[in-house]
């Protein structure tokens, strides 16, 4: 990854952070700390990205994507780690690849789809739910960049 790629990615993430209401511009705004807390990452990872020192690791990238309410796919492509060819959008019958993403399957639907016996569905939901990221707070949709 070149310094130019890191700069472009950091500028894009910086704009997302600001749009989401995190005050990262004033020294005492607390935006970096709040973002780090909400994403469950170290504040230093946020600082290093915003200062164009280093790219966040994959787990930090995933967590930031969830908190900033953008698809992980977009974060990975914008970061230069993967290309659109590496992460093609699924094409469903009769729909173009640019169609809006499908809604996330519920744990109940997953249990049914996997054939979890009725008497074990409640336990499946409890266990599987621990692996899901926290649901992001509802935010205004982003304009297409």
From TrEMBL:
Question: SMART domains attached here?
Answer: HTH_XRE
Query: What is the protein name given in its UniProt record?
Result: Helix-turn-helix transcriptional regulator
Q: Which domain of life is it from?
A: Bacteria
Family matches, as InterPro entries: Cro/C1-type_HTH, Lambda_DNA-bd_dom_sf
Q: Which residues form the HTH cro/C1-type domain?
A: 35-75
Which CDD domains does this one have? HTH_XRE (cd00093)
């Amino acid at each position: 990854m070149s310094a130019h790629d890191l700069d472009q990615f950091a500028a894009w993430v910086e704009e997302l952070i600001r749009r989401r209401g995190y005050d990262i511009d004033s020294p005492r705004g607390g935006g970096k700390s709040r973002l780090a807390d909400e994403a469950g990452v170290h504040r230093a990872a946020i600082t290093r990205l915003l200062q164009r020192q280093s790219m966040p690791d994959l787990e930090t990238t995933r967590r930031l994507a969830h908190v900033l309410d953008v698809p992980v796919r977009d974060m990975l492509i914008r970061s230069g780690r993967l290309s659109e060819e590496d992460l093609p959008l699924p094409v469903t019958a009769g729909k173009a690849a640019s169609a809006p993403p499908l809604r996330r399957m519920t744990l109940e639907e997953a249990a049914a789809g996997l054939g979890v016996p009725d008497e074990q569905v409640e336990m499946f939901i409890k266990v599987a739910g621990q692996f899901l990221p926290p649901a992001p707070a509802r935010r205004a949709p982003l304009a297409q960049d």
